[in-house]
Specification:
This protein is mainly α. Helix content is 75%, strand content 0%.
Length: 138
Amino acid sequence: MLVHFPIVFWSCAVAADVVGMFSYAELAAGVAFGALALGGISGLLAAIAGVFDFFDLPKDSPARDPAITHLMAMFSAWLIFLVALALHGYPPTTPVSIASLIASATGFIAMAYGAWVGGKLVYEFGVGTTPGTKGSKV
């Protein structure tokens, strides 16, 4: 459940950045800044939980390689979104800088790929599920 928060926050940040870029709405810049910050915090918490799940995997698990890919993609997204947050500056201003918009879009792509791999980990390998439940193969 924890992993959904950074995905939602960062998706909202990208949407707010796009709106802020074309409408010069101060509210959009504030929403993007807040969503980036909350995504960073919740992403860090999700990463900590993910590292614990990773270390629970057996060394010979077929889920190990996709788990490493997932961790790398999501950590990359986290770092890119932190760069986007820094580029926003405080207090956030309109219009959003093109560099911040590019960083947010790049972070979104990394996040989307990492989330797809994370979905495979859960639904194909049963990582993070309760043993004995449907989909648990590890």
